[in-house]
Amino acid sequence: MTIFLIWVIAFVLIAYFANKRWENGVSQGLDKMLPSVLKTHGGNRYLWVVALAVLGATTLIRPVDVLLVAILLAVIALVVMKLANWASRIAH
């Protein structure tokens, strides 16, 4: 229960400060990092604030879990890319 309360407090604080600083840097920072399809251009403010708050709070509470998920997703992406490359070579 304690970890849940800490997560909720971190979520609320991150969401509050991301929402407060949206116009002065958060939106521009997201636009620099994201591909053109996902760029915010100042829109979808609350969706991105909630997503950032969930990721930030989870990273603060369980950093190893987030790291392991990131590594797992990178390995899966690498395998898919290698299989696609192999399949395209066979098709030609």
How would you sum up this structure, described in words?
There is one protein chain. The protein has 92 residues and is an all-alpha fold. The protein folds into two domains: 61 residues, no CATH class; 30 residues. The protein contains four helices and no strands. Helix 1 packs antiparallel against helix 3. The longest helix has 29 residues. The N and C termini lie far apart (57 Å). The model has no long low-confidence stretch (mean pLDDT 87).
Helix content: over 70%
- End-to-end separation in angstroms reads 57 Å
Helical run tally: 4
Low-confidence stretches: none
Main structural class: mainly alpha
How large a portion of the residues is in β-strands, by DSSP E?
Answer: under 5%
Radius of gyration: 18 Å
- Number of beta-strand segments: 0
Following the backbone from N to C, one meets helices and strands in this order, namely HHHH
Provide mean pLDDT, rounded.
Answer: 87
Largest sheet: none
Gross geometry: flat
- Total number of distinct structural domains: 2
Transmembrane segments: 6-22, 43-61, 67-87
Keywords: Membrane, Transmembrane, Transmembrane helix
Keywords:
mainly alpha, transmembrane helix, 92 residues, transmembrane, flat, membrane
Kindly summarize this structure in a few lines.
The protein has 92 residues and is mainly α. It is built from four helices and no strands. The longest helix is centred in the last third of the chain and has 29 residues, at 63-91.
List the helices and strands and how they pair.
Elements: H1 2-20, H2 22-33, H3 45-61, H4 63-91
Helix pairs in contact: 1-2, 1-3, 3-4
